Amino acid sequence: MADVTDRAGMGRAGAGVERAEDKVITYREAVAEGIARELRRDPSVVCLGEDIAAAGGVFKTTAGLLAEFGKQRVWDTPISEQAILGVAMGAAMTGMRPVAEIMFSDFFACCWDYLANEIPKMRYMTGGQVMVPLVVRTANGGGLGFGAQHSQAVENWALAIPGLKIAAPSTPADVVGLMAAAIRSDDPVVFFEHKGLFASKGPAAPEGHVVELGRAAVVREGSDVSLVALAATVPLALAAAERLAAEGISAEVIDLRCLVPLDMATVLASLGRTSRLVIVEENPYQGGWGGTVASVVADEGFELLDAPVRRVAAACVPLPFADVLEQQVIPTVDVVTDTVRTLTAY
Amino acid sequence: MTAGADTGAGVATGADELLGLYEQMAVIRGTEKAAHDLFLAGLVKGTTHLAAGQEAVAVGASAALRPDDYVFATYRGHHHAMARGASPEECLAELMSKATGLCKAKGGSMHLTKASAGMLGSYAIVGAHLPMAAGAAWSAKLRGSGQVAVAFFGDGATNIGAFHEALNLASVWALPVLFICENNLYMEYTPIGDVTPVPNPAADRAVAYRLPAEIVDGNDVTAVRDAVARAAQRARSGNGPTVIEAKTYRHFGHSRTDPASYRPSAEVEQWLSRDPLDLAKARLEALGVAADSVAAVDNRVAGIVKDAVAAAKAAPGPDPADAMTDVWADGGSAWRT
After folding, report:
1. Last residue of a domain, one of A203, A236, A267
2. B329 and A78 in contact by Cβ < 8 A?
3. Which of A49, A131, B99, B301 has the fewest CB atoms lying closer than 10 Å?
4. Same-domain pairing of A196 and A223
5. Are residues A55 and A184 in the same domain?
C-alpha cells in the first residue's frame, strides 16, 4: 500500500541519525549516491557504460564513482550497446550484480535483443535455473530540445516485455531508495532516470533508505480526481493540482514509481475516494503505459468511476526539436488542468 | 573431469582417453538420430537443429575445459549440452515437452541449459550470446576465479554486430573468453562464402581486434581439444581471448524442415567420408585399440540412447500451472498488486 506521509522514509530516521531534511541534493547527485551506497555495501556490484568512469557520465550521474571505487568497479565501455548489456547479463548470471548504463533510453533500440529476448526470458526458459540480477540505467524523456532520437520516453517499450521490472523515480530520495531495491533485486530492473529532473532538488535520502519495488506513493491527497503520474509527470501533476486547488478542485496525485510491479491497489483505492481518473504519461498515447492502467481500472474499478477515464500522453508523432513544437507534443500543466476540468461536469 | 585440462600443445592422446571421447561423440550422434526419429514420429514439436556431424567440436572442447568453466551455445546446441554433462534422457525429455526435461519443458530444443554444469544456455538469436560469454569471463576475472568462458557459434554469427562488439570489448578488457566458431559452411541455407568477404569468417576477422586466431579441423576431436587447451591456457594466464574456427559440417539440414538440397552431393560425400566418429575410430585402430572394444562402446551407447528414449517417452508432461512460474526470482510471475 502507499505511504502518504512518509514518502521518502524520512520519518524512519532514528535518533543519532543526521536528519535528512537538513540536506538537499539534486536528482543527478542522487543517482551517483544511490549507486555508491550499493557499491560500498556489496562487492559484487560493478558498473559499466559509455563515459561513466573517467568522465563521470554525460549527465554527471556517475560523478565520483571512479575516484572512490576504482577501475575494477567502474568500467568505461566502447559505444557498443549490445556488448554492454550482453556483458552485464553474462556477469549477472555468474555471480555479479552489474549496473549497466545505456546513455539515452532511445539507444535501447540498439540493444533491444537483450532487453526483449535475452534478459527477461533467461530465467523462465531455463525452467528457473538461472537468475539475472542486473540493473539497466538510462536517461529517459524529453523537454530538453534534444530532438527525435534523444528525447523519447520509452518506458512503454520495457512494459511490453514480461520479465522486466521497471522503476522510474521522480525525486532524489526515491532515486536512492529505488536504486537500492533495484540493485538488490534478484530480477532484472530497467531504471529510468528522467533527463528533465536531473537538476531538480529534494531532501536527501536517509542512510539505509530502500523503496520497495512496486509501491506507489500518494504524494498529494485529494477528493475530486486522481492524477496518476510517473517520473517527470509527477511534478507536472503536482503543479496542475496546485492550480486546480485554486479553482476549488481537489486533485489527488499518485506517483507510481514503478510500472512493474504495477501498484494498481493504490490506484484503485484512490479512485474509491475520488471517482475520477486522469493518467499523465510522457510516452506516446499509442501503446503508452496509461492504457494498461486504464484497462485494469475498466476491469476492476468500473463501479468506482463517475466519469470517463482520460489519458494525457505524448502526441503520436516523433519528438520535434524546437521548444514551441516539443511543448505541443509532451504533456503540459495546461493540458492536464484542461483535461481535469472536462471531468468535473460528471 | 578430464585429463585435458592442463594439456599443452602436441601432447599425444592416449587410447583410453580417445575411446572416452569417441563414446561421448557416439552418445551425441545416437541421441541426435533419436531426436530426428522422434520428430518424424510426431513426438517432438516445434523445430530442432541437429548437430550430427559437429560432435567433435563440443566433445573436443569440453575435454580441454574445467568443470567450472562456462559454456554458451546456440540453438544448434544439443551436442554442447551433452558434452557438458546433460544426459540424453533430460535432453530428449525437453524436446518431447516433458516435465523431466532440462528446462522443465519451458525451453525446448533451442534453449537447452544445464547451469549446474556450467552450461549457461543455448540461444536462438544469432550471435547474442557472444557478449554474454564475454560477461561471464569478465565476472571470472573480477572474482579471480581462474575460470574461462566459451561461446560456440556458427559461421553465420560472424556477420552480426554482437560478434564484433564482443570481440572488440573482450580484447580491450583482455577477458578469459574463447570464441569458437563451428564453421559448417552454411549460414542456414546460404553458403557462408556467398555473404562474407573473407574465406575464414571468424579467424580472418580476429586480426582486426588484435586477437590470436586458430583454424582447426573441427571433425578431429583431439585437434579441437588441443586447440582449446592452448586457448584456455592463454586465457587463464591473463593473455585474453582467442578465436578458434573449427571447420566442420552438419549431416542434416539447417532445421527439421530443411532437406539441405542446396548442398552439392560431391561436397556432402566428401564431408561424410570425414565423419568425426569415423576419424576417431581410425585413430583408435592405429593406436592398437581392438575393434571389439569399439564395438562394445557402440553397443553400450545404443543401450544408453534406447533407455533414454524410453524414459523420456514415459515421463509425465508439465503441470499446466507451471506456465505461470519461474518468471521472477521468487518463482512466480506477478506483475502487479
Report:
1. A203
2. no
3. B99
4. no
5. yes
The answer to whether B128 faces chain A, any CB pair under 8 Å, is yes
Cα–Cα separations (whole angstroms), residue B202 to B4, B169, B209: 25, 16, 11
Joined grid coordinates for residue B138: 569478465
Residues 6+ apart with CB under 8 A from B251: B50, B52, B53, B272, B275
**The CATH classification of domain B3-315, taken from the options 3.30.420.10, 3.30.310.50, 3.40.640.10, 3.40.50.970:** 3.40.50.970
Q: What is the DSSP string of B116-147?
A: GGTEEEEESSTTTHHHHHHHHHHHHHHHT---
Same domain, A189 and A314: no
Cell of B101: 526435461
Same domain, A111 and A237: no
Q: How many domains are there within chain A?
A: 2
Question: Domains of chain B: which residue ranges?
Answer: 3-315
Distance from the Cα of residue A75 to its chain's centroid: 24
Nearest residue on chain B to A269, judged by CA atoms? B337
User: What does the alpha-carbon distance between residue A236 and residue A227 come to, in Å, rounded to a whole number?
Assistant: 10
**Cα A152-A154-A160 angle, rounded to 5 deg:** 155
Spatial strand order in the sheet of A135-140: A74-76, A45-49, A97-104, A135-140, A189-194, A165-167, A258-260
In this prediction the pTM is: 0.94
Does B329 contact A95 at a Cβ distance shorter than 8 Å? Answer: no
Q: Using CB atoms and an 8 Å cut-off, which of residues 137-156 of chain B contact chain A? A: 137-140, 142-143, 149
Say if residue A192 is in the same domain as residue A225. no
Q: Does A261 touch chain B if contact means CB atoms closer than 8 Å?
A: yes
Helix (H, G, I), strand (E, B) or coil at A215: coil
Amino acid at B170: A
**Alpha carbon distance B313, B295 (integer Å):** 27
State how far residue B152 is from chain A, nearest Cα, in angstroms.
Answer: 14
Q: At which of A154, A175, A203 does a domain end?
A: A203
In a domain, A89, yes or no: yes
Q: Is A295 on the interface with B (CB under 8 A)?
A: no
> First-to-last CA distance in chain B?
48
- Among candidate residues A278, A310, A258, the one with its CA nearest the CA of residue B336: A258
Q: Can you give the three-state secondary structure of A193-208, one letter per residue?
A: EEHHHCCCEEECCCCC
- Per-residue pLDDT of chain B (337 residues), as tens digits, is 333 334 344 434 599 999 999 999 999 999 999 999 999 999 999 989 999 999 999 999 999 999 999 999 999 999 999 999 999 999 999 999 999 999 999 999 999 999 999 999 999 999 999 999 999 999 999 999 999 999 999 999 999 999 999 999 999 999 999 999 999 999 999 999 999 999 999 999 999 999 999 999 999 999 999 999 999 999 999 999 999 999 999 998 888 888 889 999 999 999 999 999 999 999 999 999 999 999 999 999 999 999 999 999 999 999 999 999 999 999 999 999 9
Torsion of the alpha carbons at A265, A269, A275 and A279, rounded to the nearest 10: -40
Residues 6 or more apart whose Cβ sits within 8 Å of residue A153: A105, A140, A141, A142, A231, A281, A282, A283, A314, A330
Both A36 and A174 in a single domain?
A: yes
CA distances from A114 to A163, A165, A186, B165 (A): 12, 14, 17, 14
